[in-house]
Specification:
The chain is mainly beta and 119 residues long. The chain is 0% helix and 54% strand. Strands 2, 4, 5, 6, 9, 10 and 11 form a 7-stranded mixed beta sheet that branches. A 4-stranded antiparallel beta sheet has the order 1-3-8-7, with no helix packed on it. β5 (46-52) and β6 (57-59) form a beta hairpin. The protein starts with a strand and ends with a strand.
Length: 119
């Protein structure tokens, strides 16, 4: 089992920046993909960005060029640097991790951290 704990959410004005962190514990040796999803009020949970242990990254089109997902494998931590934030980025952000060659549904989730962007 993998446990994930997020930190770094909060309230920021449009155009501002925030940095989210997520630390993994437990069976961390099994983790291949780590990243972030978000869920806005009334919306579905959607991919924001992920990074593999090999350094490959994947971003939603809506955040490309503004968000950067990075990992520190030695610390079992994934980060999300969010710049040029927009009100539509307001959501609960969830950390996510899963082993290689497994479906998304097999992953572990953090408890979520609220990000609110005011206009």
């Amino acid at each position: 089992q993998v446990q994930l704990v997020e930190s770094g959410g909060g309230l920021v004005q449009a155009g501002g920046s925030l940095r989210l962190s997520c630390a993994a514990s437990g069976s961390t040796f099994s983790i291949y993909v780590m990243g972030w999803y978000r869920q806005a009020p009334g919306g579905q949970r959607e991919l924001v960005a992920t990074a593999t242990s090999g350094g490959s990254t994947n971003y939603a089109d809506s955040v490309k060029g503004r968000f950067t997902c990075s990992r520190d494998n030695a610390k079992n931590t994934v980060y999300l640097q969010m710049n040029s934030l927009k009100p539509e980025d307001t959501a609960v952000y969830y950390c996510y991790a899963r082993p290689r060659f497994t479906p998304i549904t097999s992953g572990s989730w953090g408890q979520g951290t609220q990000v609110t962007v005011s206009s």
